[in-house]
Amino acid sequence: MSDRRPRASWRRQPEPPAAQRPEPQPSGPGPEQADRPSVVQATLYRDGRKVASPATLAETFRRLREYPDGMAWIGLHRPTESELHSLAAEFDLHELAVEDALEAHQRPKLERYGDTLFVVLRAARYLDAQEEVDFGELHIFVGRDFVITVRHGAAPDLSAVRHRMEEDPDLLALGPEAVLYAILDAVVDGYAPVVAGVQNDIDEIETEVFGGDPAVSRRIYELSREMVEFQRATRPLVSMLHGLMAGFAKYGTDEELQRYLRDVADHVTHTSERVDGFRQALTEILTVNATLVTQQQNAEMRALAEAGFEQNEEIKKISSWAAILFAPTLVGTIYGMNFDNMPELHWAGGYPFAVVLMAVVCTSLYVVFKKKDWL
Fold this sequence. Notes:
Elements: H1 31-35, E1 39-46, E2 49-52, H2 57-65, E3 71-77, H3 81-91, H4 95-103, E4 109-113, E5 116-127, E6 132-142, E7 146-152, H5 158-166, H6 169-172, H7 176-189, H8 191-211, H9 216-246, H10 248-251, H11 255-335, H12 350-371
Parallel strand pairs: 3-7
Antiparallel strand pairs: 1-2, 1-3, 4-5, 5-6, 6-7
């Protein structure tokens, strides 16, 4: 793709004679641009240098015909169906790729449709305030003389990528493949702050787990879900870049560009391994947290059981003394009743008998309770 081949005849029609040409359109932004804010930027390059910045897609198509050896880089953000169909008609984009770009929510992949590459990337950025990972989706069409980027979400910042490429005309002169490399590099570099932020979150979670914070389980679960999404964004990139590298010889990729893409592949592999490690670490932390929570619950249950046992012992003692004290009360109550016809009421030994009876009953109860360890 990096070599300069002649334009395909099916894609560009020759310019009409001067008498049949329409009136030139103003180069500044007009009503069409206002109606189509999804066109972020359209720029034409020749030999690695900017030659035009058309305001509309129609003007971009017209100006591109004026530079047979030029390259168009068109950036879109959540484009309309009519805009993508216009691009598909001009650059012969495959209908399946166009459908994917419209619907978004695609997994990272690389497809080749004839001379056009269709690449889907999942960019990520770490939001410090919310302590969460925000994912964006980027669709890229790469042809012999054009690059079309369709962005769904805030990430990545392609204006920085464009500025970097314009600052390096030699790299930009390598063509659409160089732009694809720069975008891949920006997306992969954007993973580094996310990895650092997640590592910091995991360190904090470990502290909270061993500190006994009851809310840490929810944080572990939410971060684990984000790592699943992060894994889905990074893991397919490894095979995608290997697929690109496998076609170096077939498509005559520049040697310097080959080295750059290999470097991106190394970074992707490292990031993917880190993400796999994060997910495994969170699984282990969740297991440890569950174990600690179980131990804490067991300790609480043991403390409750011990408290119940102690309370039981106290109740036994109170019940025992109550029973002991109840015996003389019962005897005294019976003999304290004022009836004339009561047995032993006028007996001279009645009082000593009652006292002895009280003592015997209390002593017997005390012995019984002592043997049962209630006292």
